[in-house]
């Protein structure tokens, strides 16, 4: 049986998903799964369920201004705060990891991170910062922060939304330090699975296609640790094929034979 429990870690509302008979086990392999923009933690429960079935502890947090933390920030006002949300989520991944570590619930060498859209963007940012992340799955995101933020700024300006240039510049400066595209070497050939639908009109497919090509140079010693899967007829929605491939990726790279034996 899979249990789903609302828990608050460091003032961050989360869903804690795990097999009932493993909930209190110390130091389980753990995956943090991050939702997309305007979404919430509950929307990714199908993926969390499949991961928990494999033997993972899965933590799904609500990003600031989303889900239980939505508050009054919505619409264009939230659009203008997109990158602040990403930056805060990158910080909060560290807070969540430390809380689980203090409770002896996380295996320090078997930690994965994944996300959809904005969650995938956050995943890329976290990979640039934290070498304790052992494997990652990025669904329909982009690691090219500068390029994507420029597109978003133009969209907001075209829509007539007033932007404070000083605030924009400060945000751009902060993004430089977490922009994975500026420090691909920080991946250190850690297992990374990238998925993107080729008909995506929200986060264009070409971002992931280009990323895969750029990263091959950084995975020469372990090319098997980098995988890219695309689907020609899929738009901005994670398919079942992508879901299962991501679950299998984490199972391959993070589960011990001991854990597999207890589940299978």
From TrEMBL:
Top-level taxon: Bacteria
Alphabetized NCBIfam families for the sequence: PRK10566.1 (NF007857)
Lineage: Bacteria, Bacillati, Bacillota, Bacilli, Bacillales
Gene3D superfamilies for the chain: alpha/beta hydrolase
Domain Peptidase S9 prolyl oligopeptidase catalytic: 98-240
Protein name: Esterase
Gene transcribed to yield this protein: yjfP
InterPro entries xref list: AB_hydrolase_fold, Peptidase_S9_cat
């Amino acid at each position: 049986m899979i249990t789903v429990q609302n828990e608050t870690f460091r003032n961050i509302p989360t869903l804690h998903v795990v097999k009932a008979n493993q909930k209190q086990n110390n130091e389980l392999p753990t995956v943090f799964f991050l939702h997309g923009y305007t979404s919430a933690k509950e929307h990714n429960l199908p993926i969390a369920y499949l991961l928990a079935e494999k033997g993972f502890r899965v933590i799904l947090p609500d990003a600031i201004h989303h889900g239980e933390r939505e508050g009054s920030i919505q619409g264009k006002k939230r659009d203008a705060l997109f990158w602040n949300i990403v930056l805060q989520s990158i910080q909060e991944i560290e807070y969540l990891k430390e809380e689980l570590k203090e409770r002896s619930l996380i295996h320090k060498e078997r930690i994965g991170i994944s996300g959809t859209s904005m969650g995938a963007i956050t995943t890329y940012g976290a990979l640039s910062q934290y070498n304790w992340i052992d494997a990652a799955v990025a669904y329909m995101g982009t690691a090219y922060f500068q390029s994507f933020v420029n597109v978003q700024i133009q969209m907001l300006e075209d829509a007539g939304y007033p932007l404070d240039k000083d605030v924009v510049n400060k945000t751009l400066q902060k993004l430089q330090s977490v922009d994975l595209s500026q420090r691909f070497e920080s991946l250190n050939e850690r297992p990374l699975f990238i998925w993107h639908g080729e008909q995506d009109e929200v986060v264009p497919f070409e971002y992931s296609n280009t990323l895969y090509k750029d990263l091959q140079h950084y995975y020469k010693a372990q090319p098997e640790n980098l995988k890219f899967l695309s689907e020609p007829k899929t738009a901005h929605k994670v398919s079942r094929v992508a879901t299962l491939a991501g679950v299998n990726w984490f199972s391959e790279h993070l589960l011990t034979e001991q854990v597999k034996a207890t589940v299978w």
